[in-house]
Write a structure and sequence with these properties.
By secondary structure, the chain is α+β, with helices and mostly antiparallel strands. The chain folds into four domains: about 10-165, Beta Polymerase, domain 2 (2-Layer Sandwich), CATH 3.30.460; about 170-245, Hydrophobic Seed Protein (Orthogonal Bundle), CATH 1.10.110; about 250-380, no CATH class; about 385-430, no CATH class. The protein has 22 helices and nine strands. A hairpin with a 5-residue loop joins strand 8 (about 145) and strand 9 (about 150-155). Helix 6 (about 170-180) packs parallel to helix 8 (about 200-210) and helix 7 (about 180-195) runs antiparallel to helix 10 (about 235-240). It is elongated, with a radius of gyration of 28 Å. The chain starts with 15 loop residues before the first helix and ends with a helix.
């Protein structure tokens, strides 16, 4: 491998203890909100859904959602009087957000579904936690917990969690018909929680899959990214392909191998890495643009996806020299939507998913990037005006070619000072013009 100057050491910190402290702060702050509603205003209130599930599993909840018998206008009034900032995020459906010191907390009035159409529900406010639980998707998400730590489990959520089973509340077909997005949510929880749906549930999902065409693409893509970001998504992805459901929104997708899933695990953005692997047969920029538009990807996601696919295809082509690959790294580094460290944290792990024959090159690039990035990005000590004068050129393609060759020779260690570079330029002028 040719000698290349690459970049700085990347420090990788887990931040696990910081997350635990932040979660504890949010939990204690949420308890204060429950106390305000219950003790001061006599409104029965409990934690709801995912935070109850995660606490039961001794995992750190991402957020703390709250359910109450109080109506949204009443909840707004109570917390505004207490000096909290209150946002009516979904007040027509009973949800307001209360902004605290350590986080934002959604407080939702108990509800019943009056009418559903597969996408939206018409609701009325209720007073029963059991009736509210009955309208939720999975048993593990239909539990409540009061401020004393008592869990209210109306549909066997704890038992299903203990058995690692993923079950809809009630009849699977009816739950899906109420909201077809629950198909994608099932795959996401299957991948994330490593809980297995039963055969009846999987049959219902396969039969009802066409209903996803009625769901907005933004919501489907959000769930897909959650599936791809999971630690152990293999079985969920396998069924997603076997059932042909993936073809509804991503017909270009190809299956991921077990080896690819394992190797992509270390990527800082494994969801994008795995999506890129699913789309590695997409070679035209125009086709990728159409896919990104259809999936409603953000500009940043589109750019990063293009970097992952483009550079891996370049590497896998077998024609990638070390210098040319370094130039690909430049394009990524200077792309305004790919933040600092994207190459080291995301591209290099993605490259490991390609054929093993490229492993030595990938390993060498990682080592050099971790140690000498500043040298790779260093500006060569010759300016374009120096080249124009020395070679008697005018601005144009010939100047660009000369500057490219100068950068390559600099990275190869063929010269270091300005004088050395100018002598190299004169010596190689004839070969550059061929």
């Amino acid at each position: 491998m040719s000698k290349i100057c690459l970049y700085f050491t990347h420090n990788n910190q887990t931040g696990a203890s910081v997350s635990a402290i932040k979660t504890e702060q949010q939990y204690r702050e949420a308890l204060v909100l429950l106390t305000i509603l219950e003790e001061e205003n006599q409104l029965e209130t409990r934690f709801a859904g995912g935070c109850v599930r995660d606490r039961y599993l001794n995992q750190l909840p991402k957020d703390f959602d709250i359910a109450t018998v109080g109506h949204p206008q009443e909840v707004c009034r109570i917390f505004k009087q207490k000096g909290y900032r209150v946002i009516p995020t979904g007040i027509e459906h009973g949800t307001v957000s209360v902004i605290g010191k350590f986080g934002s907390y959604e407080i939702t009035t108990l509800r019943q579904d009056i009418e559903t159409d597969g996408r939206h529900a018409t609701v009325r406010f209720g007073q029963s936690f059991e009736e509210d639980a009955a309208r939720r998707d999975f048993t593990m998400n239909a539990m409540f917990e009061d401020r004393h730590g008592v869990i209210y489990d109306f549909f066997g959520g704890k038992q299903d969690l203990d058995r690692r089973q993923l079950q809809f509340v009630g009849n699977a077909t009816e739950r899906i018909r109420e909201d077809y997005l629950r198909i994608m949510r099932l795959y996401r929880f299957w991948a994330r929680m490593d809980c297995l749906p039963n055969e009846q549930t999987l049959t219902a999902v396969a039969e009802m899959g066409a209903g996803l065409a009625r769901i907005s693409q933004e919501r489907i893509t959000q769930e897909l990214m959650g599936i791809l970001a999971a630690t152990s998504p293999e079985q969920a992805l396998l069924h997603l392909f076997d059932s042909q459901i993936v073809k509804i929104f991503l017909p270009e997708a190809q299956r991921l191998t077990s080896e690819q899933l394992v190797r992509s695990q270390d990527s800082h953005e494994r969801h994008l890495s795995r999506l890129a692997l699913m789309l590695e047969q997409v070679h035209a920029d125009e086709q990728l643009t159409q896919i990104a538009k259809r999936l409603k990807l953000s500009n940043k996601q589109h750019t990063k996806l293009g970097c992952l696919i483009g550079t891996s295809q370049f590497l896998a082509s077998g024609s990638a020299s070390s210098i040319e690959t370094a130039e690909k790294m430049d394009l990524i580094d200077f792309c305004e939507t790919a933040e600092n460290g994207f190459f080291l944290k995301s591209v290099i792990p993605h490259w490991r998913c390609i054929e093993a024959i490229h492993t030595p090159l990938v390993r060498d690039f990682q080592l050099l990037e971790e140690t000498q990035r500043s040298l790779r990005l260093a500006k060569i000590p010759i300016e374009s005006k120096d080249v124009l004068i020395q070679l008697n050129l005018i601005p144009g393609p010939e100047l660009g070619q000369a500057l490219t060759q100068l950068k390559r020779s600099y990275r190869n260690g063929q010269w270091r000072s300005k004088d050395e570079g100018m002598r190299w330029l004169i010596e190689h002028r004839e070969s550059m013009s061929r």
